[in-house]
Structures are given as structure tokens and as C-alpha cells.
Amino acid sequence: MKIAFDACYIHPLPQEHRFPMVKYELIPAQLLREGVISPSQLFHPAPAPEADILRAHTVTYWHKLRDQTLTPREQRPTGFVQSPALTHREIVIAQGSIDCARFALQDGIAMNVAGGTHHAFADRGEGFCLLNDFAIAALHLLHHGLAKQILVIDLDVHQGNGTAAIFAHEPRVFTFSMHGQHNYPFHKETSDLDIPLPDGLDDAGYLRLLYDTLPHLLATVRPDFVFYLSGVDVLATDRFGKLHLTPAGCRARDVFVLETIKCAGLPCVVAMGGGYSPLVKDVVNAHCETFRAAMDIWGF
């Protein structure tokens, strides 16, 4: 199993965003220390080419990102102050998901330590997302004839609003988002399937919804490729999540999703998405459980 990771996932970030993003260094470090993965499984993506970016994003928006000409008003919803390093970070993350998609076609699964930038729209960024890596990678597969029907499973606690909007009129990509009903973004877009979750939902309630939904969804959509956003901001410890999942419940979620995908014989890309528990060790361990589950299920 190949895993996308690059130092630029964290180092360009403004100081005030470093704490929640330090996980991007700690996740591979912990997995290597435990012997779950080997150094040969890690790869460093190059920047994504403009042609791939422009399949998902408008020329006007991309040129503003590239040329650092976003206005203060356009920057504000992203949570970032624009910089060349941040733009570089986003295009490397996007290429990481493209590369993972191609590796998944060979190996069954590949994982991006970052990724899941699902709040980025075609023409703007939001919520710490500047470019939508799943959209860019999915459209890369479709353009090159490497997939015909794609399913995006977004289980981050925040709705994948940018992804839903980008694919609103693209029948070859089915978007499924299971997210906090009363959480960011407060104006929701319309995914192909949205399941809004009440505040305080626990393991049993969450997993019951997922168990009842995902197998039927695979049978109905009949994808030949899956992107899975495995945000751990569903944890009860998360500062912003509003749900009450335990680490065991979060792992059960990942195991079920990954086993269902594997049993269906579908290639899969996994990106980590959000996680904002006050103790970074809780975030890192929850993300590492996703990697551990994938390694076990695919037998690497």
C-alpha cells in the first residue's frame, strides 16, 4: 500500500494553524515507529499539473491562487492568508490523491496522509480548503478512462459542500455525505445522498445508519472506484464535532467501510480529513487506526 506524504503538508502553514496540522508529521512517524508501515510505502507527490486542476476549478479562481491575487474578502472564508507556499501545498496534496488513485488501481487501496479538502468549490476556497483534491483526482480518472462511475464517501463531521457542488451535474460521480446537521457549513449544498446527524449521536446510532446505508448504496450506484474521506472529527473529544463517537466506534466505522469496499472488489483512495480533539495524540491515534485497519483488511 502506497501512502502520500510530504513535509509541505505542514510547514507552509501559518503558526496559528500548526497545532491541529502537526498530525501530518506525527501520523507517518507513529506508523513507522510501530512497524505498521515501512519507509518504502511513503512517497512524495510532485505538484499537480494545471490541466488536472482546471478540470475541477475555474480558470479565474486558479489564476488568482497561482498569482496570489485573491482579495482579502476572498481569502477570509478560507481561514488562510494567501501565500505561494500554501498554494504549493494544495497542489501537492491534489497530486497525492491523483497518484493514490493510480496506485489503488494496482494495489486495491492507497492513502493520502492529508487530503479531503472537501470545502473547496470550483470557483472559491472555504474552511481551510483551497483546491478540492478528491474532485481533481476523480476527474483525472474519468478523463483518462480509468473509471466510469465513482462514489465519494464523505464521513467527515462537516458536509462535503464543495465536492457536492462540483459534481452536482456530473452523473459519473455520486457524492455521499454523512455529517453533523448543525455543524459547519451552516448552508449545506445538496449531495446525491446526504444524511444529517443530530448532535450527540453515539456509536450505536451512527453505525446503525452507516450499516443500513452503505451496502445498499454500493448496489445502487455500482461504482468502479471509491474515494473515502475518513475524518476523525466525529469523536466525542473533538472540539467542533458535536457527535459522541468513541475511538472504538470510529475504528468500527473505518473497518466497516473498508471491508465493504474490499469485499466489493473496488479500488479505494482514503484521505484523512478533519480532527480537532484538544490532545493531538487522540487525533493521531484515531487517524492511525484508519491505516491499521486498511493494512489488516488488504493484508499488506
UniProtKB/TrEMBL annotation:
GO biological process, any: epigenetic regulation of gene expression
Keywords: Hydrolase
Protein name: Histone deacetylase
Family indicated by similarity: Belongs to the histone deacetylase family.
Molecular function GO terms recorded: histone deacetylase activity; hydrolase activity
Pfam annotation, one family: Hist_deacetyl
Protein origin, superkingdom: Bacteria
All residue ranges annotated as the Histone deacetylase domain in the record: 17-286
Signal peptide location: none
Keyword Hydrolase: yes
Species whose genome carries this gene: Chitinophaga parva
CDD domains reported for this sequence: HDAC_classIV
Source taxonomy: Bacteria, Pseudomonadati, Bacteroidota, Chitinophagia, Chitinophagales
